Amino acid sequence: MLALSANGVLPKVDYAVFADTGWEPRAVYAHLDRIEREIAAPAGIPVLRVSAGNIRDDALDPSHRFASMPLYILNQDGKAGMTRRQCTGEYKIKPIKRQIRDLLGYPYPQRIPKDVFVEQWVGISTDEFHRAKDSGVRYMRNRHPLIDLNWSRTDCVRYLTSLGLADTPKSSCLGCPFHGNAQWRHIRDSPEEWEDVVSFDAAIRQGNARATAAGHHLLGQAFLHRSRVPLDQAPIDHVTAAERAANGADELEIGAMDGCSPWACRSDADAPAPDGFELAA
User: Is the pLDDT of residue 8 over 80?
Assistant: First the structure.
């Protein structure tokens, strides 16, 4: 959407907003720097980076309130479960809303008049039209330009490729439990990032640090991988039926599945979501 706007295919937006959880892959930060330098800046579109902190550090800090990640739980009786997902709201939606309020000139807790709002673009393509939804607040009105253009994921990839951006990565936390096996394999190819997520997986085995420090121990064990075994032992080399059905046998396309977006974050059973850019017009 940023490229379409910068190149005049879509109207020029006033801002692009990136919600940074502090734990994105290095490739995402490098890509963000590149498109800000090569696409946004020449078009006069400011890229605003907003953050509510570092989700990895917060999860392991016993003194910090932590919005829970959707960890896979193996209970003492052998039954499977999951913790609640609060991270999208805390680390993506809230900081974006705070930024939008500031841009409108009504920082919290000021009341925003009914006729003051932004049009916010969300990058959902026709493959996932059923996930298009409102922002939940009157001062942010969601629009889905890719659906308006009748663009599928394939159309998006084709356009990015024409701009020399075929290697555009998906935005998501390194240790997001909603990664598919292809994304875990991709992370494993980067030894430093793989060591990071394996270490984090081991560290959250008993749940979030603050609850544990307060004596509220998790009645079971927590894991990043849906198999509910330590990440470095998880069957990530298995290509799942869902991966094959969604993307055929193309590993590049399978790897494109994963991602996290403020207004379209996937659930455990959902199809994958678009990446974490929001455009305000």
Answer: yes
For residue range 255-281, list pLDDT tens digits in order.
444 667 787 666 544 433 333 445 554
Angstrom distance (rounded) from CA 216 to CA 191: 34
The range of the structural domain enclosing residue 101 comes to 2-280
220 membership: H or E segment, kind and range:
strand 220-223
> Tens digit of pLDDT for each residue in 111-124?
999 999 999 999 99
Bridge pairing between strands 80-82 and 220-223: unpaired
Q: What is the pTM of this model?
A: 0.86
Q: For tokens 């290095």, what's the residue? A: 26
Count of structural domains, the chain: 1
Instruction: Check: CB of residue 239 under 8 Å from CB of residue 181.
Output: yes
Question: How far is the C-alpha of 172 from the C-alpha of 265, rounded, in Å?
Answer: 10
Rounded CA-CA distance 39/163 in Å is 10
